[in-house]
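Minutes, project check-in

Agenda point 3 was the complex the collaborators sent over. CS summarized: two entities, 796 residues total, and the question is how they sit relative to each other. Sequences were read into the notes so everyone works from the same version.
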Amino acid sequence: MEFRFSKSVGTLTSSAVRDILKLTQGQEIISFAGGLPAEELFPLEAVRAAADRVFALGHKTLQYGVTEGHVPLREQLCVRMAAKSMDVHPEQMLLTTGSQQAIDLVARVLTEPGDVVLVESPTYLASLQVFRMYGLRVVSVDSDAHGMLIDEAERLMQTLNPRLVYVVPTFGNPTGRTWSTERRKGLVALSQRYGVPVIEDDPYGDIRFDEQLQVPTLMSMQPTVDGGGVIYLGSFSKTVAPALRTGWAIADREVVRMMAKAKQAADLHSSMLDQQTLDQLLQVFPLDDHIRHVSSAYASRMQAMQKELESRGRGDLSWQEPLGGMFLWLELPEALDAQTLLRAAVLKGVAFVPGTSFFAEKPKRNTARLNFTHTGGERMRQGIARLFEAMDEFLARC
Amino acid sequence: MEFRFSKSVGTLTSSAVRDILKLTQGQEIISFAGGLPAEELFPLEAVRAAADRVFALGHKTLQYGVTEGHVPLREQLCVRMAAKSMDVHPEQMLLTTGSQQAIDLVARVLTEPGDVVLVESPTYLASLQVFRMYGLRVVSVDSDAHGMLIDEAERLMQTLNPRLVYVVPTFGNPTGRTWSTERRKGLVALSQRYGVPVIEDDPYGDIRFDEQLQVPTLMSMQPTVDGGGVIYLGSFSKTVAPALRTGWAIADREVVRMMAKAKQAADLHSSMLDQQTLDQLLQVFPLDDHIRHVSSAYASRMQAMQKELESRGRGDLSWQEPLGGMFLWLELPEALDAQTLLRAAVLKGVAFVPGTSFFAEKPKRNTARLNFTHTGGERMRQGIARLFEAMDEFLARC
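CS then shared the predicted structure for the full assembly.
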């Protein structure tokens, strides 16, 4: 049979990151490509004990659950959100299969094909995939070290009538960038003024390298969740473990209700074993201490990678030191196309993600994203050495 | 902010079943409404031990996984599929968050809004929700006790150029109906002749009340998976436990590749804890013995409910005895609208699902779906008694 695939899925390119990961499976390649947390820091014993407490609750724990997600976990998350100055009711929250699913559900309920969505430049790759699959027109707003340029965003709101804005304002992916408070306020105000909902994707916000640093979420800048245009997305993937695939979306309760309707059709509900395990974990495990521990380890890895890059003394390499998160965003010499460099690098045994795929429009070809959380120590140094080897050879040929 | 919701999600009614479940939560209502397996039969200790073996494998078990699903579980499932005369390669299989997600992904990759999808009359409620969300035109094909009427299906293929067919041919939901081999062959032939893919949704196929009964899957009637139009969906929800939210789709590998691309955007991947736990479970747990045990218990419950219905001797009630699965489909007296009856029944403390919601078109209002797997024994008898009370009062008023 000849299958006729839908136009939308035809436009999807498979994620460059995941394709590279597949390519490198089993080979001796040092990868800075994936957005992987450090396995050795996963609270394995605590998760195991939590799962065991779930099973001890008996047979009913293995039954179907509600689409909106395990109520006790939502209640605990509301308490955690309160500590971030977000006053949230469980009915304003939907548990999802990672925050990736939340992006999908928001696009599903708030857009029609052909609508415009505004994003940062560059932005999270897999959000672009969702928006393209729904046939949206993705327009990128010029951004600098402090976040999206608000004047530019306003101009586009006036001229393009966008249906949605998507941002990662804290320790962003891919740039590691943290928006200034002013830009945050600016976007929240625009959202209200022009009636455009804003997805605030915040998977990295807890991974901050300076404990004293207080970064307000966009959602905390609204008077109330109901009636506000911000849709906040959180995730356990970086603070507990990705395998448990649990994220949460917070929004006006009517938006949550519509997302739940869409989710019911999409998969009925997410894993109840995962949700109940996380609920049990939060009841006894000092998650904030754990997050401090993980963040401090990641800060050291970031510093070490930065030092390694600096020590090799290439004046034509630059980056902005991230205040948290998982990524270093490199600007390479102008002459260097990172996609071509990647092929040379993989031959040397090192991988990264060329920056091109993170741009909705006008890609900067001389950019690369390096993950610093997964590979540390001697192996990281070896990886950077290989990367510079590839770069040197490449530039010598130019 | 005034949210403008997409047209597609506006057309979604929340599942009648799940709304009733919500309604009945915490109240003393005997529910035959949900499609819930019997909790007390879940292999809790085996699942617990399997999860524990997963954790014993170390930190890497909590890391991100591949979109297509845990490879060792796909390999074991291929062996299980071979026992059903389906020769499947792991690359022809995608693991999903329950088979509900597979229905969603198939619709996403194989249809455009406005396309026609053919379904049985009546059919699985939540498939209708998916198709409506994607803006498809759902057309129901007249069906009898042996399945879809093939001549009618052919006529519709010739006139409506459908893009997809969706069926539950074995111990179906809601009717409990099992298609004859002839009808199965007929649909597979039509699928090839007219180039229309067929979703064979088979969550209940293993729950058969007569061990000797051999029911061939549609997929096993194709020469090969690649090039064939059948997309087979299986699930652990009824044979192990729903909380683990794991289903699998089998199809031509190009279809699987496209579904995986769509799934990557939808949620990156399903729970790895669930998938690895099921993999460990299958390695040591005698699942087929367990399925025989569960099926035999369900057969007894079905017989008991049937006896209870018969013993009350209403000649104006009829049903077809199911050969497996989880549902009895009642035809009530003509004068009885099951939606109205439900309200009276809930007041008496019993719930079921009115048949109307399972019809894509031309609903038969005097039909009802009763689940017999979740509530057995004295409680089931009490529930049936309440149902008859409601019916009697209702008919007395007519």
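Noted in discussion: Chain B touches chain A through 84 residues (CB under 8 Å).
Follow-up: revisit at the next meeting once the mutant set is ready.
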